[in-house]
Amino acid sequence: MRDGMSDKIIDRQEIILTVQQQKMIVSGWGNDTLDKSVVEKITYSSDGLKVTGYIAYPKDDSKIYPCIIWCRGGIGNAGAIDKFTARGIFGQLASWGYCVFASQYRGNDGGEGHDDFGGDDLNDVLNLIPLADEIPQANKDVWGIEGWSRGGMMTYLTLTKTNIFKAAIVLGGIANLRCNSDESKFMRRLYEHTLGRYEESEFKTRCETRSIVNFPEKLSKTTPMLIIHGNADNRVLPHDSLDLSYKLLDLKILYRLVMLEGGDHFLKSHRKEVDEMRRNWFEKYLKLRV
User: Fold this and answer.
1) What contacts 1, CB < 8 A, 6 or more positions away?
2) What integer pLDDT is reported at residue 198 of this predicted model?
């Protein structure tokens, strides 16, 4: 814990990789990711719980940079971001000129509490916002948000709570938890994860209250969204994004929908293209319009 630190961040440690890991970062994410960014693992306070996560920021502290919240996917510790992956994903975003804030969500990676999959753990996302006070080069007036898979659901739900975000990106995002465990591998896993904890009727209610297609009118009207989905995604089915897009159209919410041919849930075969779209979207709405 650093001297003079407030109680917003309880602990922070810079991620230091081995020489071999550094070479892998350069191979996977490029030289700038390693050379131009700092990534730290943190413990922060959220609703009185100690929750783990990450922050990243550019090494150049001579100016201020927009802030981005990044929402991870997965359930529980499955999908939690390890230090190596964090150094790549968040280091890349920071190298583009952003301060990045990410949560592992409560109950995961040694954090206190229980991962509620879009319930109280949504506060773990919102409680990242005050952490910008701890980063001198953070422009606390300019925020974006990004989420992959379950993180897409978290992004949508966050956008019903605040209009602070000037841009959002969702990739393979869950927009409709249909409660049909036969529909996809992801839904089967979710059902198994919660089976025995809730009655069937309560499980259905929990699904409905986490499905943005049921209340899209609550979304921020001032946050442009880039929605990207692979046509061959068999974990979160493509019509999650397609169905939501029609509702966004009716609500006149600014968005761009990109369906990638042959793209799986992780969009591996489209990575370079996806990174370019992500970078351009944040550049357009977080930098050029400031």
Assistant:
1) 10, 11, 12
2) 64
Which residues share a beta bridge with 40? Answer: 14, 55
CA distances from 252 to 155, 221, 225 (A): 19, 8, 12
Q: Which of 125, 135, 115 lies closest to 38 in space, CA to CA? A: 135
pTM here is: 0.92
Buried b (16+ CB within 10 A) or exposed e, 237-256: bbebbeebbebbeeeebebe
Query: What amino acid is encoded at 204 in this protein?
Result: K
- Give the 3-state secondary structure percentages of the chain, helix then strand then coil, rounded to 5: 35, 25, 40
Fold exhibited by the domain 9-287 = Rossmann fold (3.40.50)
pLDDT in tens, 103-146: 999 999 999 998 888 889 999 999 999 999 999 999 999 999 99
